[in-house]
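re: ur question from yesterday

yeah so i grabbed the chain u mentioned. its 319 aa long if i counted rite. heres the sequnce exactly as i have it in my notes:
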Amino acid sequence: MVRVVLCGVGAIGTEILNYLIERHHEIVGVVDSDPEKAGRTVAELTGLPLGIPIRSDLNSVQLTDADVVVFSTRSRLSDMGPEIMRAVNNGIDVVTTSEEMAFPQHAGVELARDIDALALEKGVTVVGVGVNPGFVMDWVPALVASASKNPVSIHVVRSVDVSRRRRQLQAKTGVGLSKARFEKDLAEKKMGHVGLAESAHLVALSMGKELVGIKEGVFPVLGSEDYVMGVRQFVEGMAGSCQIRLDLEMTMTSADFDVVEVKGEPSLKVRFEKGVFGDSATVALTVHAVERVGQAKPGLITVLDLPLSRVVQAPGAGR
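ran it thru and got these structure tokens back, copy pasting raw so excuse formatting
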């Protein structure tokens, strides 16, 4: 059993909370800054069998009662830094679904160094997890490529039918917007998937290389009358002599599938025929990371450093 504080009771956060309860972990605090949620009990808000009140900020939670703080809130590292530092300063491991935290050095080298230094000082671990980034377009291709000698290319395609997804994802992909409004929101960094570059960096990291010569693109997919049906994105770069290319399509007319193809010796191809469903997979990956982070090395790490199995310890046993 792990004692957990959960920050963020949105759609994904609620499902994380439910799965934590299902797996018999102890919820010692729940935080959400939404004034319509703070002050209510978890049971009142979600219907889950938990009568503890939802706090408005992390300062209101007794962190000494916790083993892990889970953040299911923001995507950007700059928005997460102070809260993560607060948890780490209290000697608590951190698991977050923040996309930029999958490879935070890409988004903010100085802040990432600060988090890493404090986590090492306190002997705790900070890791960003999720389905994408964190699994489909980085962890899986890293694993597949490890079985190929001298790979010359790694190509991942993720195709998502957003008509079957939450409205929040449809909004993030620009569904229903005009082309002009999409381009305006894109310029303001309100549009598109966050984390594609982080995934490419993780694949390169798994090969012991830095990603260089990076190219990125985000494009609207248009329907009739120039209204947006979704988005296409790509990132590519070189890791030594290996080209890494990630293609992501999320539209109202896309088929659901994921493909990982490695050209090397041998060449390998893996296809998830119906795709890896993002919401439930993110919930599973987050909770399983909660169960394993205590056995990971201290510091700011990536999913590549998380153990695949949880080491069973006696109650009260530490690292």
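noticed a couple things. The chain has two domains: 3-129+280-305, 139-275. also Confidence is low (pLDDT under 50) at residues 314-318.
anyway ttyl
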